[in-house]
Structures are given as structure tokens and as C-alpha cells.
Amino acid sequence: VQLQASGGGLVQAGGSLRLSCAASGLTFSSYGMGWFRQAPGQEREFVAADSWSGGSTRYAGSVKGRFTISRDNAKNTVYLQMNSLKPEDTAVYYCAADVNYFPREFAYWGQGTLVTVSS
Questions:
Q1: Which of 30, 67, 108, 113 could link 63 by a cystine bridge, Cβ 3.0 to 4.6 Å?
Q2: What pLDDT is stored for residue 87 in this prediction?
Q3: DSSP β-ladder status, 113-118 and 9-12
Q4: DSSP letter at 64?
Q5: pLDDT tens, position by position, for the chain (119 residues)?
Q6: 61 Cβ contact partners less than 8 Å away, ≥ 6 residues apart
Q7: Where are any strands of DSSP class E within 13-102?
Q8: Cα gap 30→33, rounded to integer Å
Q9: How far apart are CA 64 and CA 62, in angstroms?
Q10: Are 53 and 30 in contact (CB under 8 A)?
């Protein structure tokens, strides 16, 4: 299983970015997906998750209303649309996959993509 995250970069506060995570080596439409982030000196934290169909989603309180997780099963890709970005959103963002929706621990992880939000 490979998960390739991309789309990170430098953006000003209030701006937007869309992260992508392309999956291979798994039946993507049977897997729930998640996004996590880790800021410098901090522990990794949950950001968002969806079910295999995309019909169920879950968000961390700090991003709810600003971030949206979505997927395209035909492209084996999950997205994280990030709007109204804040400096505290600066982190390395990781995608993850699991056969369960929002498991205690995701089975597969991708490499991270860095998001930097300037004030």
C-alpha cells in the first residue's frame, strides 16, 4: 500500500490550499481515509476522516467549518480542502487509510506534506 500526499506549500493567513492523497495497492473504495497533522514540537493530531463511500465524515473541532475532506473513488484519491487558514494550521499533514471508518489506529500511512501559513 502506498499513500502519496501532495499539495502543501506556503500560504498567507486567510488563504486556501487543497491537499491530495493518491492511494495505490489497495481497494480504495473499501477503505476509510484520514488526515492528520503534526506541528513542530507537538504530537500528531487528528484532522479529518471519511468513510469508504464518503458518506460519513468527522472533523477535529479546530478545523470544523474550515476544512472539508472528500474523495474521488475513480481516481483513488482523497482530498483535504483547507480554507480560512490560520498560522496555527502550520504543520506536516499526513494521510492514512484503514478498512474501518475512523479506527483507533489507521493501518497505513503516507509521507507528509508541509503546510506553512504565514501571518
A1: 67
A2: 97
A3: parallel
A4: B
A5: 999 999 999 999 999 999 999 999 999 999 999 999 999 999 999 999 999 988 899 999 999 999 999 999 999 999 999 999 999 999 999 999 999 989 999 999 999 999 999 99
A6: none
A7: 17-24, 32-38, 45-50, 57-59, 67-72, 77-82, 91-98
A8: 10
A9: 6
A10: no
Q: Which amino acid is at 31?
A: Y
Angle (CA) 22-81-35 rounded to 5° is: 55
Closest CA to 67 of 18, 13, 23: 18
pLDDT at 53: 85
User: By C-alpha distance, which of 32, 36, 30 is closest to 48?
Assistant: 36
Q: Which residues contact 31 (CB under 8 A, 6 or more apart)?
A: 23, 52, 97, 98, 99
86 vs 89: CA distance, rounded Å: 5
Separation between Cα atoms, residue 71 and residue 99, nearest integer Å: 15
The three cell numbers locating residue 42: 507537538
